[in-house]
Amino acid sequence: MCRFLAYSGVPVFLEDLVAAPCHSLIHQSLHAEETKTGTNGDGFGVGWYGDRPEPGQYREVRPAWSDENLLSIARQVRSHLFFAHVRAATGTATTRANCHPFAHGRHLFMHNGQIGGYGLIRRRIENLIPDALYGARVGTTDSEALFLLALASMAEGASPGEALACALDQALSLMQQAGIREPLRCAAALADGETIHAVRWSSDAKPPTLYLCDRGDSVVIASEPVDAARDCWQALPCNTLVSVRAGTVELAPFGAGLRRAA
Hints:
Elements: E1 3-13, H1 15-18, H2 25-31, E2 44-48, E3 56-60, H3 68-76, E4 78-86, E5 102-104, E6 107-115, H4 118-127, H5 131-134, H6 142-155, H7 160-177, E7 184-191, E8 195-202, E9 211-214, E10 218-222, E11 233-235, E12 240-245, E13 248-253
Antiparallel strand pairs: 1-4, 1-10, 2-3, 2-4, 5-6, 6-7, 7-8, 8-12, 9-10, 9-11, 12-13
């Protein structure tokens, strides 16, 4: 399973969460604690918002712990909203195009989890991506496909939460039609430069871990706590959508309408 974090609040250097804390994301790339494999060395990425509406990105296939450029960028870049992700591949190639976060227009997206039996239904999932967005697909992951499906729903007027639920519902429906018994598991975050929407959901009872830390002037959402201030970190309940905007945190049930895996 991958590890990620999303930050919203007063501008800070990426280093303050990606590299400096005792259980920073770089540390988690080699020593994750709340996942089956402690190593997440199949690439990494950071995405951040600055003075332009579109986010900046840096993605690389090297392990996060061995990339000196990541340390340099994290030390210099300051942002009020950013994503960071370390990858453990689940069947797709280790390429830059497959590293998270993914960006399109003003949106960023990252994901931890998997579509069970993805190789069996990949072509059918990609067929659901409208032509207007299919040209933006540069990688081969299930995560990028979910992102583009969500963007398609948003273009038709769905809210971000509704769009994420719709994308998962479409994937789960194809899994059921194909007789796939593996689960669909999803911890994901979507941002537009002002608001972060994150979900923790699974078709079984084992969704990926996701925590929230509200520090008053900032909010961090992460796969695992990044520091020793454990009183701040609250595990998000299963099947939950959390939205963070301008210091306001809203939690809501997520997944109504999603068909449960047979």
